[in-house]
From TrEMBL:
Family annotation (SUPFAM superfamilies): P-loop containing nucleoside triphosphate hydrolases
One Gene Ontology molecular-function label: ribosome binding
Matches recorded under PANTHER family: GTPASE DER
Entries under Gene3D superfamilies matching the protein: P-loop containing nucleotide triphosphate hydrolases (3.40.50.300)
Domain G: 1-86
Alphabetized InterPro entries for the sequence: GTP-bd, P-loop_NTPase
Organism of provenance: Streptomyces sp. SID7499
Protein's name according to its UniProt entry: Ribosome biogenesis GTPase Der
A Pfam family this chain is assigned to: MMR_HSR1
């Protein structure tokens, strides 16, 4: 995802706007072109959010980029949910 994708969802009579944004691959000042602008849009979405959901790939270690997005949400004072996908790909140990 490079451009944020919005979807309005009604849950229990309350309408919520979910926004799927691009991840941040590396430091914004090192990015170029579309990745640079995608990172700026992601940062802006975090600033506007009430709750940030950070999706972590369970098959990999938590990256510096994941930590950066989590820090961005915390520093913005947003509620934070950390979710893990690909959990089924891990062995039982």
């Amino acid at each position: 995802t490079r451009d944020p994708v919005d979807e309005l969802i009604n849950l229990g009579g309350i309408t919520w706007k979910f926004i799927d944004t691009a991840g941040i691959r590396r430091r914004v000042h090192l990015q170029e072109g579309a990745d640079y602008y995608a990172s700026l849009r992601t940062a802006a979405a975090v600033e506007k959010a009430e709750v940030a959901v950070v999706l972590i790939d369970s098959s990999e270690s938590i990256s510096v980029q994941d930590q950066r997005i989590i820090t961005m949400a915390v520093e913005a004072g947003r509620a934070l949910v950390v979710a893990f996908n690909k959990w089924d790909t891990l062995d039982e140990e």
